[in-house]
Every structure is written in structure tokens, then in C-alpha cells.
Specification:
Elements lengths: L2 H21 L3 H6 L4 E5 L2 E2 L3 E3 L5 E2 L1 H17 L6 E5 L5 H6 L5 E3 L6 H4 L2 E3 L4 E3 L1 E6 L14 E5 L3 H13 L4 E5 L2 H9 L6 E4 H9 L7 E4 L6 E3 L2 E3 L3 H16 L3 H9 L16 H8 L8
Parallel strand pairs: 1-5, 1-6, 10-11, 10-12
Antiparallel strand pairs: 2-3, 3-4, 7-15, 8-14, 9-12, 9-13
Helix pairs in contact: 3-9
Keywords: Signal, Transport
Protein name: Amino acid ABC transporter substrate-binding protein
InterPro entries: Bact_solute-bind_prot3, Solute-binding_3/MltF_N
Length: 297
């Protein structure tokens, strides 16, 4: 190997090591040194994380993350801590955390084994499952009713993977389309481009309630999945994760999380000031009796 080539490889190696060192810097240490906290959010994951009429990120998960931000500020001793918001999609959210562009992802993201290879999750703030959003005049009541037809789900989501797997296993010959986001999936159903939109039912209720004609849509079918939704955070940052886990556990066991939940699921919410009327379900109540970041599914 020539001396010039060796120097070139050495320079590349030093650059990579430097990059990794920056990426691996603990969140709390960075903020204590004057850094900012970056919160990733979604555009249309109602009521968890979405933008209001003023383009501000709002929602159930956002309220939880803003509570966590204050705990982080106090822990680091920062008198002022800049909080920056980063909009992400189903396709970009995991990379945003894994690559260090955001510290918390506050949305409706499922904690599963595949994702835990790249990121960490705190204690779930919701448990749900994927069902079908169809037009009110549709006779369909289950996924098998779409044999040989078209359905849609959002790119990069666990419901999309679940419906692809079900289609393969049951030989239903369904044409599965991918939408860029949840709002587009609903629009495709409304316009007849797809017979159903497959997504977590709590998101479907939120999306439907904010359409111009909510009565024109309905949610049908058995659960295709069981989804534990949780805030994402960087992997291999144990001090940061412990702080987040401890605060989530405190919110749950003190029941302070319940008024936050009711604000977004039981009371009128923007942009149309309609209530979802979804009380805490039995799955979540049971899970919150012994709050943990471990999920069995």
C-alpha cells in the first residue's frame, strides 16, 4: 500500500471515529453543556402528535414530552434550555432518533423487537391495534372482504407490515397501496382509490373525527395487531433513559397522566373542537398497574 493511500485511509478512519464520538455523546451531558433538546413530532397523528392551525406541534404525546423536557431541564441544571421541534414521518422517525437528529420522538410509534435494535422506548402511553377505516356505505366488515381489491396503509408502519403478512398467509390477493402519511390514506378511501385504510384504530378515530364529513366513514374489523405505543429515545444512553422512564412511571403511578389523557381523548380538541370520547381501555389500565418499558408483543 502506498504511503499516500495509507494516509487517506487513516484520515477517513479518524473522521469516522470523530463522527461516532459526537453521535454517542450522552443527551444529558450535551444539554448540561448548553445544548438544545430536539423533539421529533408528527404532522397528522391525531390526537398523539400533530400540527394545529398555527403550525405548532400539539397532542397527547407532545404534552408528555414537554413534561419530560422540564424534568430534563431541572436534571441538567440548565436555567434555560432551548427546545427545537423536528417534524418527521413514518419513514423518517426512527432514523431521526438513531442518527442523533432528535432526542425524543413524540408520536404514535409502536415498540417492537425490530425497532429496538436501533432505538430505545420508554413506558407505553397507549395500547391499541390495527383495524380498517372504510366508507360508511361499504358492506365490508373484515379484511377478508377485500379479497382481490385495494387497501392502503401508511409507509413505514407496523399495520402495513401486518396487512402484507396477512395477505400473504391467507392468499387474499389484495393489492396493498402505501400512503405517504395518514391523511393521504384517509383521502384515498374517501375518493374510492382504496377500499380501506389500515391503521391503529385510535388514530383512525382521530382522523375520521376531523374530516369534513365524519359520518361518511366508519371503523370495522377485528384487531390485526396489538400495538404498544411509546416515546422513542436514543439507544445506549442509560442515564437519559432512566430519567425518562422514572418520570413516565411517576406520571402513571401518581395518576397525573390521566388528566393529560382525558384532555386529548375525552374532551374537544383542535382543529375542529370535537371529542374522540375514548376512555382508557382495559389493556392500558392493566399495563399501567405495573408500568414497564418491557412489552410482550
Amino acid at each position: 500500500m502506498s504511503n499516500a493511500r495509507w494516509k487517506s485511509y487513516a484520515a477517513i478512519g479518524m473522521f469516522l471515529c470523530s463522527s461516532l464520538a459526537v453521535a454517542a455523546e450522552p443527551v444529558l451531558a450535551r444539554i448540561a453543556a448548553g445544548g438544545k433538546l430536539v423533539i421529533a413530532h408528527r404532522e397528522s397523528s391525531i390526537p398523539f402528535s400533530y400540527v394545529d392551525a398555527d403550525k405548532r406541534p400539539v397532542g397527547y404525546a407532545m404534552d408528555l414530552c414537554l413534561n419530560l423536557a422540564e424534568v430534563i431541564r431541572k436534571k441538567t441544571g440548565a436555567k434555560k434550555m432551548e427546545v427545537e421541534f423536528l417534524m418527521v414521518t413514518s419513514s423518517t422517525r426512527i432514523a431521526a432518533i438513531a442518527e442523533g437528529r432528535a432526542d425524543l420522538e413524540c408520536g404514535a410509534t409502536t415498540n417492537n423487537a425490530e425497532r429496538r435494535e436501533k432505538v430505545a422506548f420508554t413506558i407505553p402511553h397507549f395500547i391499541t391495534g390495527a383495524r380498517l377505516l372504510v366508507r360508511a356505505d361499504s358492506p365490508a366488515t373484515r379484511i377478508e372482504d377485500f379479497e382481490g381489491k385495494k387497501i392502503v396503509s401508511t409507509k413505514g408502519t407496523t399495520p402495513l407490515k401486518a396487512v402484507v403478512q396477512a395477505n400473504k398467509e391467507r392468499l387474499m390477493n389484495i393489492t396493498i397501496l402505501e400512503s405517504a402519511d395518514h391523511a393521504q390514506g384517509v383521502e384515498m378511501v374517501e375518493k374510492g382509490a382504496a377500499g380501506a385504510f389500515v391503521m391503529d384504530d385510535v388514530l383512525l378515530y382521530g382522523l375520521a373525527s376531523n374530516r369534513p364529513d365524519p359520518a361518511a366513514l366508519k371503523i370495522v374489523g377485528k384487531y390485526l395487531t396489538t400495538e404498544a405505543l411509546a416515546i422513542m429515545l436514543p439507544k445506549n444512553d442509560p442515564e437519559f433513559k432512566k430519567l425518562v422512564d422514572d418520570e413516565m412511571r411517576r406520571l402513571i403511578l401518581s395518576r397525573e397522566i390521566y388528566p393529560i389523557y382525558d384532555k386529548w381523548f375525552m374532551k374537544p380538541i383542535p382543529p375542529h373542537d370535537k371529542a374522540l370520547n375514548l376512555p382508557v381501555n382495559s389493556l392500558l389500565k392493566d399495563f399501567w398497574k405495573f408500568p414497564t418499558d418491557f412489552v410482550p408483543f
